[in-house]
Amino acid sequence: MRKILLFILSLVFLSTGFTGQTSAATSISWTQADVAGGTNQWWRAASISSDGSVIIAATLGGRIYLSIDSGDNWSETQPAGDTDEDWYSTAVSADGQTILAGATTGRLYLSIDGGDNWAETQPVGNSDASWATLSISDDGQIILAGNYGGRLYLSIDGGDNWAETQPAGNNNEWWYTSDMSSDGQFMIAGVINDGRIYVSANGGDSWGQTQPAGNNDANWYGSAISDNGQTVLAANSGGRVFLSANGGTNWADQELGGDVNESWMSVGMSDDGEEMIATAQFADVFTSFDSGETWEVTQPAGDGSMRWWPSDVSGDGTSFIAGIYGGGLYVGSLVITNPATSSAGSGSGSSSLGSCTEAMPVSAPDLFSVSSQELSTILNFVPVSGSNTSYVISYGFDANADLFASSFDYSGTDVMSYSVNHLFPGTWYFKVRGQNGCMPGEWSEVKSVRIL
User: Fold this and answer.
1) Which residues make beta-bridge pairs with 140?
2) Percentage of the chain modeled with pLDDT above 90
3) How many CA atoms lie within 13 A of 185 on its CB side?
4) Mean local confidence (pLDDT), 233-250
5) What span, in angstroms and rounded, lies between the C-alpha atoms of 143 and 108?
6) Yes or no: domain 25-337 corresponds to CATH 2.130.10.10
7) Smallest Cα–Cα separation from 234: which of 397, 63, 226?
8) Which of 7-21, 276-290, 336-350, 374-388 has the highest mean pLDDT?
9) 127 vs 138, which has greater pLDDT?
10) How far apart (Å, rounded) are the C-alpha atoms in residues 61 and 73?
């Protein structure tokens, strides 16, 4: 009897180059931040510099933490006398030198030396407002600040002076989310307590209301906008995540997780609008690497369906951060894999490998069964014979089975079981092939299974 070798892997979805839109597989590698004082805290706000090197993260009823090496090491950074505040909002400039932190129980603080020193910066008459949202331009000069149950304020000189910037007829709102482009010209701001979304294309001089159909009075917890102001994300608590590709004129429901309404708490976006992240409480972390055309569950292993709250994406799209309300803080790095060694591709792949001289695997794997187990699928297959270093699993929503992919190293001959996790309900199609270094083998037959 053959020995059964089980590969039960928590799969991170990989977007692949089957349609010619991208030439490599993309995923995120997550690492839990080793923050002083313990990892399980009430993470409420987080921001990343343009290149991902500087990260600031803040807790509710606690402290502010800073990393200047992409999350490898962390230190506490606090305004004097404010060691345990309800920190609700953060923002950081492109170079990580200008940092903002706002509390719902106190003040708005600014550091212009990377968190070494802090000074209070307040719009007149708002010394003890609840600062729920902050955003900042790349150069740190343009700052948008909104308070909870009050006004929206703008500074164009790095926080030295402030002026009210308000959509018409909105004197006191529950401002909860905001974002701006690198140059500060395109802005978005969202309101909770039966509120609306507003966008500005002229640096806050004027604002226009924009809403997904049927969502006029939602609780907008998350928002993000690209540098050209055309790609816009908005998420509401107890509802959906919406995407606009034309500056908020039209919106499309991203249908993350199917038709179930979730408590979406935050969204983030790279400067070019390619990389995106969305988090929900008691649900999953979703990311997109193609401007929202496809979304994938991609979160730290073992931390699915947690109370995800803050998230952000670096301007260059290479770094991610996501925090759990009452849990861990995680830093993610974008991983782009050479398609010659890991991409699922199509056919045998030998004609497009250029200088690859490795021997092709002798045969296709025998995929003899595919079975469902809750939101997972277990593939059982007989490995290939001959030269082989790894395997590629390819799967999707039609008989081509080529929308997502995963690869792993293995050269044995035992019957294998591989678990693909975090699938949506519906019919899924799967196939598998061997890989010998840079040389892919032939695909197995395609098998399907229905996830309920």
Assistant:
1) none
2) 48
3) 9
4) 92
5) 12
6) yes
7) 226
8) 276-290
9) 138
10) 22
| Residue 267 burial (CB count, 10 A) | 27
Residue 412: CB atoms within 10 A of its CB come to 10
pLDDT in tens, 422-438: 777 778 899 998 888 87
- Report the pLDDT averaged over residues 359-370: 90
Q: Quick one: pLDDT at residue 380?
A: 92
Q: Do 278 and 233 contact (CB within 8 A), yes or no?
A: yes
CA 6 to CA 418: how far, in whole Å? 7
Range with the poorest average pLDDT among 67-71, 94-98, 168-172, 243-247: 168-172
Q: Could you tell me how far CA 241 lies from the centroid of its own chain?
A: 13
Identify the band that residue 274 occupies on the pLDDT scale cut at 50, 70 and 90: very high
Per domain, the residue ranges of the chain are 4-12+342-451, 25-337
Q: How far is CA 1 from the centre of its chain?
A: 45
- The half-sphere exposure of 240 on its side-chain side, counting CA atoms within 13 A, is 18
431 touches 446 (CB < 8 A): yes
**pLDDT of res. 423:** 75
Give the chain's mean pLDDT. 83
**How many residues in the chain?**
452
Distance CA 222, CA 243 (A): 12
Q: Which residue has the tokens 């590709």?
A: 245
Q: Which of 62, 15, 14, 17 is nearest to 36 (CA)?
A: 62
Strands (E), 129-172: 131-136, 143-150, 152-155, 163-164
Q: Is 198 helix (H, G, I), strand (E, B) or coil?
A: strand
Question: In the numeric block, which tokens belong to residue 237?
Answer: 């608590």
Contact 190, 234 (CB under 8 A): yes
Give the CA dihedral 201, 202, 204, 206, nearest 10 degrees.
-80
Residue 230: its pLDDT value, please?
Answer: 94
* CATH 1.10.530.10 is held by the domain 4-12+342-451: no
Closest CA to 37 of 76, 72, 69: 76
Q: Is the pLDDT of residue 167 over 80?
A: yes
- For residue 306, the SS3 value is strand
Please tell me the distance from the alpha carbon of residue 204 to that of residue 144, in angstroms, as a whole number. 9
Q: Which residue has the higher pLDDT, 188 or 296?
A: 188
Q: Which residues contact 375 (CB under 8 A, 6 or more apart)?
A: 421, 422, 423, 424, 425, 451
**Greater pLDDT, 410 or 189:** 189
Number of helices and strands in the chain (H, E): 0, 37
Structural contact between residues 226 and 215, judged by C-beta atoms closer than 8 angstroms:
no
Q: 148, 196, 203: which is closest to 172 by C-alpha?
A: 148
